[in-house]
Amino acid sequence: MNIQEMPYNDCIALVKKQRLARLACANADVPYVVPVQYAFANDRLYVFTLPGKKLDIMRRNPNVCVQIDQLKNRHSWKSVVVDARYIDLEVDECREEKSQAWSFLARHLDWWEPGALKPPSKLTEATMKTHIFFALDMIDVSGRATAI
């Protein structure tokens, strides 16, 4: 098996194509990794969650990392790592971007998983308070892939 570095454009193509990622954040020196569904737009990854550990950690330390894979078999795969910065869309000045995040994510079936139960189909004031959206502003992207 020959592993090669992926060009930037190939990395972005993989990020656009996939929907499931592993989000890594760190509380002091303790890493925490969880699966998330995302939507890609405007050089940002948009994610939905409910209150919990990852959100608490990212609000204290906004530096995160995301790994996105495409696995055909154990000898044919691609993997992209995105260094990013957490952006809280729950603040008033991000209300429009939060609504956009909802619409980007809602284009895909089961977009709320693994974050929570299915939210209502329309974004309401009550829903906006209980369903938390955030963005990951991409800082650096790198990838590796097997070559056949």
Please write out the topology.
Elements (H helix, E strand, L loop, with lengths): L1 E4 L2 H10 L2 E8 L2 E12 L2 E6 L3 H8 L2 E11 L2 E13 L6 H11 L19 H6 L1 E16 L1
Antiparallel strand pairs: 1-7, 2-3, 2-5, 3-4, 4-7, 5-6, 6-7
- The helix content is 10-25%
How large is the radius of gyration?
A: 16 Å
Q: Please identify, by name, the CATH architecture.
A: Roll
Tertiary shape:
globular
In terms of DSSP E residues, the strand content is over 45%
Low-confidence stretches: none
CATH class: Mainly Beta
- Main beta sheet strand tally, sense and closure: 6 strands, antiparallel, barrel
* CA distance, first residue to last residue: 7 Å
Total helices: the number is 4
> In the residues, how many domains can be counted?
1
Mean pLDDT: 85
Number of strands: 7
- The H/E string reads EHEEEHEEHHE
Strand order of the largest sheet: 2-3-4-7-6-5
CATH topology: Pnp Oxidase, Chain A
Structure, described:
The structure is a single chain. The chain is of the alpha+beta class and 148 residues long. The protein has a single domain, classed as Pnp Oxidase, Chain A (Roll), CATH 2.30.110.10. Helix content is 24%, strand content 47%. The chain contains four helices and seven strands; from the N terminus they run βαβββαββααβ. A six-stranded antiparallel barrel has the order 2-3-4-7-6-5.
